[in-house]
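Per reviewer request, we include the raw input and output of the structure prediction for the construct analysed in the revised manuscript.
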Amino acid sequence: MKRLGGFSALALIISSTAGCGWIYGEDGYFRDRGSDYLEARQTAPMQLPADVNAKRMDPLLPVPQQIADSTAEGEYEVPRPQALAVRADASEFSLQKSGESRWLVAQRVPAEVWPVARQFFEDNGFRIAEERPQTGEFSTEWQRLDQLSAGMATRLSGSANGGAADSETRVRVRIEPGVQRNTSEVFVVSAQRPAGSTADVAFTSRGDNAALDAALLDEMLASMARSVEQGGSVSLLAARDFDAPSRVSLSEDGNGNPVLNLGADFDRAWSGVGRSLELADVRIDDLNRSLGVYYVNLAERAQTDEKPGFFSNVFGSEPDKETIDARAERYQVRLTPVGDSVQVTVEKDLNTVAPADVARRVLDLIQDNLG
């Protein structure tokens, strides 16, 4: 009935407008205005009364001075417009501090921050000893400050114990998904030992030299901002594997309910599951990160930013809210931290587990799209 109504409405529109010059004619409301600019004429600037004190009024869309006039002959190539100079109200990178902890926040995904952070250390003389793009970590070798670039050695020499000639330093950088979507958090921790020592000094949570860590973050902040202005690169390896857990296995709990076990911390697991649901074309109606829950509707495809066209609306191909609610298959995908891993389960609601076949189908989709 809805499609029939759409055809009727379209037929009524066409029949009622046929031959109506007042709509499409030369003086009609919907006449072609594509050539109106050819008849446009410049008028004198608006004059204000002499007793009015007003600011200078500049044209909003000034006419370029070097343009072809109406008497020009032959072919004329319209010049390309100049690029707009856009200034952001806030920087994409900022330093955050909580107590004695400091870290850098980037308004970019980890895959874009990774190559910029790594390049910063290499450009300043640090030698990369180990890197794990899948977990967002890399560390440098043991080095004295005089082995770094001259500029970096000078900037870090003022840090407490940073410029000591009888010590060696190594740095670990960790890039994690931020609390807000499409953001990253960068943590820098250093470790020190006497020069010439072969002791394997472990990294601590706050580092051995807070002043040196803070100086590195300050320099990295300035370097990243410059790199983005010049056009930064994207690590495809990190983009593909950053939020992919190292171990994924599908098993059952004591009651026989399917459970997906992810060998990752909660942040990485949360990001990976969300990305997998999108790749599997599963509709996410809502989410609650603090509860670790994605609210999905298996009866619908993933939501997109594309809006339906005119004919989609006329012929009723886009389902309305009542139709969606009537055929909805709503479930909750819940993430629960368990030790060093995360368990993913599917529930009908807070007190009811989903049927085993439904849960296994959803968890299979997540597992297939995690890698």
